[in-house]
Design a protein that fits this description.
Elements lengths: L5 H10 L4 E4 L8 H19 L28 E4 L5
Antiparallel strand pairs: 1-2
C-alpha cells in the first residue's frame, strides 16, 4: 500500500474494521493406523509408569518437530486478518 504506513494499516484493521491477525499453522492429518499406534504407545507407557518400571521424573516430552519436504518456507511473518480464527 503506497503512502500508508504499516502501523496505520494495523491500527485501522484493529480499531475500525475489528479484524485481528492470526498466524498460519499447519497440522498433519493422522491416519487410523497412526491413531491406533499412538493409543497403544500411551497405554503401554501408562502401564510402565503404574508398575514403576519407568520413573516419570526422567521423561522429557516435546511437541516440536520440523519437516521440510519441498524447501523451507518462513511463515513467521505471515498473518491472516479476520474476525474469527480460521480453521
Amino acid at each position: 500500500m503506497a503512502g500508508i504506513s504499516q502501523t496505520s494499516v494495523v491500527r485501522l484493521m484493529k480499531s475500525d474494521l475489528k479484524k485481528f491477525p492470526y498466524k498460519i499453522q499447519t497440522a498433519q492429518r493422522l491416519s487410523e493406523d497412526a491413531m491406533a499406534r499412538r493409543l497403544f504407545f500411551a497405554s503401554d507407557l501408562c502401564e510402565l509408569i503404574d508398575t514403576q518400571q519407568i520413573d516419570i521424573k526422567k521423561i522429557i516430552f516435546s511437541d516440536k518437530a520440523y519437516f521440510w519436504l519441498d524447501g523451507y518456507v518462513n511463515r513467521q511473518n505471515f498473518r491472516i486478518w479476520g474476525t474469527e480464527k480460521p480453521e
